[in-house]
Task: inverse folding
């Protein structure tokens, strides 16, 4: 499976364009597609916009701890492509939009300053060019009034015209006079029926789902799936992943079943490599270095064994001293029952036997510790480890290594089983916990000859003894595991140290497997309930709009279904919508679905072409007209909104 590196947004700062542009002159029209995600601005007659940038700005907060003299060192406001690293300023980003409606005109003014500056306009106190700008469907009159006021009063433009991005894209692709436009935006999706060149205003419907919701949902899914990389999975990277790997499923439920199949998953999952610090591989060792390393490991094993013997010897000596004190107290006629209970001893006879056992254990330990010094040479110090690092006489090296590996695997399995058992014992109602208490109770009854286990504190000595035995087993297993690791490192060339293996495979720890998320994020356009939205999906909304028309008009609409907007670039939308249309229309009904040539740029291209028509000149709002009719006034045309005058206040007409 091919592994692709994660791609970050590559942002190149805009340069200042030469002014005036020889190809348009001083009478050229400035075309601005003011989208809620990207803003596209440039001169008419151009093949593509001169500026394409994120419609946001980053305003740094002033540090209150700085003195007034240091105010000049505060970074200036960054706009559009001047923000090279969006994630570093994520908390400081601001936009002029509330969903798809411009509401913050102080931000919009700074965006206009950026546009006119980058276009190279250097005229004093004014912008001597007409402006063609897009607005959202059914833009409120108050918002249009503020936009007109900003452009006429602040920039003193000679003329202004408004258009709707989806209608301009429809015009740019020359889709005829009737059709059904599906405009997928960053915050909303619109279903716009067009008949005889005019949109049917009363039948337009909006879904409050767009590209931003898909990006946010994919971002959250990946963060929940890879909590260890929550900071590395950013919104910008999720945006890149959505547009590069996202797709609409032809049949969502069938696709989910396919992704549940391991074979399908392995064939279609996209592995994305996150950045990480790669550890350098250790160089190969020479024979001398291997010999020195063998001696070092041998010495290390001897030190481990010696340290454990010293610890056990110290514990046994302390235990022997306590038992001898109890014996002396018993000889003096004192009551030692509490001491016997503390050490789980029944009577004085058992006490003497335990003293003899501990004494014997101490003597053997001392003899073992003093054995290396018997020859009077320090070269015999790691004698135990030398014996351990050599195969037995009756076994070959290969057989000895295989047996050691089996023993090591058995210890690891035993430790895993013990760990799982401890987890089960921590829960009172598990079968393991109940079985353990049954065994303890059985041992207590057998030892005490009664059935009142748990009534006295000394009844729990059995439990302490069992816990002590388990701890002893853990220590022995750990010691043997260290020994087996040392043997395998020396004699098995295929053995890999678990720590080295983990560091060597660190690249796999920093990989994202984008599987079902590829279809789950775009699916919210058809099933908004996935993100707990109670709106209808795109297919249901289209069906509702079509039912508002008679049969003959419905045929004209479905013969020309037009997809535009940023989400139209996601793979599979046309095929999925074809399936949905086939299900909602009568049997063998004809329909045609087309995607815009440039779903993102066609609105600007359509506005640029519109500036060459006589309709544009008729739709211009001049400065005198603005002063006479007000900022909310709009000249209607086929590519713009319908003008609904704001009702006058009737309060003055009411009389007593």
Result:
């Amino acid at each position: 499976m091919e592994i692709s590196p994660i791609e970050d947004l590559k942002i190149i700062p805009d340069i200042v364009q030469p002014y005036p542009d020889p190809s348009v002159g001083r009478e050229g029209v400035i075309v601005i597609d003011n989208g809620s995600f990207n803003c596209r601005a440039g001169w008419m007659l151009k093949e593509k916009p001169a500026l394409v940038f994120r419609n946001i700005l980053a305003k740094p907060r002033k540090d209150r701890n700085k003195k007034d003299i240091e105010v000049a060192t505060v970074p200036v406001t960054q706009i559009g492509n001047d923000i090279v690293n969006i994630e570093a300023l994520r908390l400081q980003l601001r936009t002029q939009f509330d969903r798809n409606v411009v509401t913050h005109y102080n931000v919009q003014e700074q965006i206009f300053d950026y546009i006119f500056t980058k276009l190279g306009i250097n005229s004093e106190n004014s912008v001597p060019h007409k402006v063609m700008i897009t607005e959202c469907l059914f833009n409120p009159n108050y918002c249009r009034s503020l936009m007109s006021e900003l452009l006429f009063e602040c920039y003193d433009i000679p003329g202004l015209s408004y258009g709707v991005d989806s209608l301009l894209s429809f015009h740019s692709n020359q889709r005829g006079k009737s059709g059904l436009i599906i405009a997928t935006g960053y915050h909303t999706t619109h279903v716009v029926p067009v008949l005889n060149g005019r949109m049917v205003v009363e039948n337009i419907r909006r879904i409050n789902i767009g590209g931003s919701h898909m990006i946010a949902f994919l971002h959250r899914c990946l963060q929940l799936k890879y909590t260890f990389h929550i900071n590395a999975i950013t919104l910008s990277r999720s945006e890149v992943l959505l547009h590069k790997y996202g797709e609409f499923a032809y049949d969502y439920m069938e696709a989910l079943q396919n992704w549940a199949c391991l074979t399908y998953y392995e064939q279609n999952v996209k592995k994305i490599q996150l950045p990480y610090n790669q550890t350098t591989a250790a160089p190969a060792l020479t024979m001398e270095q291997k010999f020195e390393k063998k001696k070092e490991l041998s010495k290390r094993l001897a030190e481990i064994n010696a340290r454990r013997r010293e610890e056990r010897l110290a514990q046994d000596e302390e235990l022997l001293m306590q038992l001898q004190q109890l014996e002396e107290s018993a000889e003096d006629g004192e009551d030692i029952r509490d001491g016997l209970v503390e050490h789980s001893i029944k009577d004085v006879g058992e006490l003497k036997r335990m003293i003899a056992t501990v004494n014997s254990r101490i003597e053997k330990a001392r003899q073992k510790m003093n054995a290396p010094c018997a020859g009077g040479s320090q070269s015999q110090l790691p004698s135990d480890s030398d014996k351990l690092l050599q195969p037995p006489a009756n076994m070959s090296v290969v057989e000895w290594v295989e047996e050691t590996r089996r023993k090591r695997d058995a210890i690891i399995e035993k430790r895993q089983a013990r760990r799982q058992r401890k987890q089960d014992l921590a829960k009172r109602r598990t079968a393991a916990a109940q079985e353990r208490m049954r065994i303890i109770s059985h041992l207590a009854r057998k030892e005490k000859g009664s059935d009142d286990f748990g009534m006295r504190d000394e009844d729990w000595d059995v439990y302490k003894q069992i816990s002590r035995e388990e701890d002893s087993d853990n220590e022995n297993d750990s010691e043997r595991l260290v020994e087996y690791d040392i043997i395998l490192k020396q004699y098995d060339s295929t053995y890999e140290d678990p720590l080295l293996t983990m560091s060597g495979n660190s690249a796999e720890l920093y990989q994202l497997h984008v599987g079902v998320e590829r279809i789950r994020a775009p699916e919210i356009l058809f099933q908004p309930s996935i993100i707990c939205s109670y709106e209808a999906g795109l297919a249901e909304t289209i069906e509702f709009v079509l039912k508002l028309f008679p049969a003959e008009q419905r045929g004209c609409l479905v013969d020309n279904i037009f997809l535009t907007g940023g989400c139209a670039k996601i793979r599979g939308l046309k095929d999925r919508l074809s399936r949905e249309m086939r299900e909602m229309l009568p049997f063998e009904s004809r329909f045609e679905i087309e995607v815009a040539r440039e779903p993102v740029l066609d609105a600007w291209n359509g506005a640029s072409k519109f500036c060459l028509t006589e309709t544009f000149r008729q739709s211009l709002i001049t400065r005198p007209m603005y002063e006479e009719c007000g900022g909310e006034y709009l000249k209607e045309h086929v590519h713009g909104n319908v003008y609904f005058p704001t009702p006058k206040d009737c309060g003055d007409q009411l009389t007593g």
User: Anything to note?
Assistant: The chain has a mean pLDDT of 83. The domain at 211-276+506-524 is CATH 3.90.640.10 (Actin; Chain A, domain 4). The first strand starts at residue 3 and ends at 5.
